[in-house]
Structure formats: structure tokens, C-alpha cells
Amino acid sequence: MTALFALATSLLWGLADFGGGLLTRRIPALTVVVVSQTIAAAVLAMVVVTTGAWDEAGPRLWYAVGAGVVGTVAMLCFYQALALGPMGVVSPLGSLGVAVPVGVGLIVGERPGLLQFAGIAVAVVGVVLAGGPELRGAPVQRQALLLTLTAAIGFGAVMALIAEASASVNGLFLALFVQRVTNVAVGGAALWASARRGGRTLPEGGGPRIILASLPALAFVGLADVAANGTYSIAAQNGPVTVAAVLANLYPVVTVLAALVLLKERLKVIQATGAGLALVGTILLAAG
């Protein structure tokens, strides 16, 4: 069950990142975050009301609040990085945040078997290589690298926090709702502050019309991210966090393949090798 839900997480995150990166090329990153998370929060509000998940409120929700604050910063940095650099480079480096939940798992006493340790090592190397050695000294690429590493740490922290935010299915619905409301509050405040300073909050050459036309894509990004957080939480609660975190962080391979198929980005030999190693690492982890 852990492997299945963790791999579903990687698929959902990979597609959400691909969509978010594309949208940020036309719409300011803060606006993408706020609108997509607002749609997700609205859908989750209906789920919470329908299931009566309010009864699950408790101290654990502070983990969801923390995940919401950190996640907003991480998403903003990551979407900006995806807009600046090739998705095949930025997305794999973003997965380095896996070190955070894996470290937490080791601290609390998890000890994967030899086969799983080998799978972790192979998968992480594969995900990094899937980006290809394209990070050279151009200013924009340095900026994308800094944004990506910041996002990676944030994503890793979100994974660790959301896994602790609930103990039941209804509790998970409520935790995801609280996380999204926090995303919207923090992102909305940042968007308002940016507008006050004269920053761009609407797309050039179309403004609200472009946002309205992009609502289906924005909804997909927000809801896919919510679903990924949910499947990861289930995976982490039903098996070793170290295994769940590594399998969930295979999402860059999905982003790379989506960019290859839909954007016709060329895949280098080292990128193909990295994707293959990530697959081998997945098999080792699942077999262990």
C-alpha cells in the first residue's frame, strides 16, 4: 500500500508541477499559487462539510498550518524556477527535499533493509541525473538554482509536516483544507503586498481574461497538489517514511517526460539514464 500511494503521489506532483510551470510562463507565480489553491480550498470545504470532518479538529492541525505556510513559499519559488529554467533541470533538483522526511524517519528510528537503502541511493541519484548537467554560470540559471534549492527544502518540510497532521481519513480532509486555507492567506497577503509595491499581479496583454481562460488548468494544478498531499500522507502513515518519501519524490521523472512529450524538450543521454536509474530504485524499494 505504501508503494502504491507513494507512486500515485509522484504522478500527481509531477503533473501539477508541469502545469504550474507552464502557467507561470504567462501568469505571475504568486497569482498562480493563490488562484489554484483557492479553487482547491473551495473543493475541500465542500468535502469537509459533507463528511463532517470538523469533528476531527485538534492540536494536530498546527502541523497543517505549518505545512501551509512553508508550502506557499516553496511553491512560489519552484514555479518561478520552472519558468526560468528548463523543466528537465529544475524539477529533478527540486526533489532533493526528500532528505528532510528521510532524515526525520531515520531520527525516529526507522531502519530500512539493505535492499531499500540501495533503492533509496539509486533512486535519488537517478532523479538528480534526470536533470542533465546543464547548470552553468549564466545569471538566470543561478537564480533558478537558488529558487529550486529553497523550494526543495520547503517541499521536504511540507512532506514531514503533512504526514503528522492527521490520524484518520476525515482528519486528513480537514488537515488538507486547513493547509490550503493557510496557503491562500499567506499567498494572498504576499500578492497584496506585491501589488502595493507596484508588482505585476495579472498577465500582460490580457489580464483577467487570461486568468479566466486558464481556470481549468489552475484548478487541475491545485487539486492535483491536494490529492498528492493526501496520497503521501496515507503512504507515510502505512509504511516506512523513508520509503514513502523517496518513491513520492520520483515526480520529477513525470515532469521531465511530460515536457519531453508535450513541449518537445530534448532528452539527453544522461537524463534518460537518470530516469532509468529512478525506475530501478523504485523496483528495489518496492521489492524491499
Automatic annotation (TrEMBL):
Chain ranges of the EamA domain: 3-130, 144-285
Keywords for this protein: Membrane, Transmembrane, Transmembrane helix
Gene3D superfamilies: 1.10.3730.20
Superkingdom field: Bacteria
UniProt cross-references to PANTHER family, sorted A to Z: ACYL-MALONYL CONDENSING ENZYME-RELATED, SOLUTE CARRIER FAMILY 35 MEMBER G2-RELATED
Family in the record: Belongs to the EamA transporter family.
Name of the protein this chain belongs to: DMT family transporter
Organism of origin: Streptomyces albipurpureus
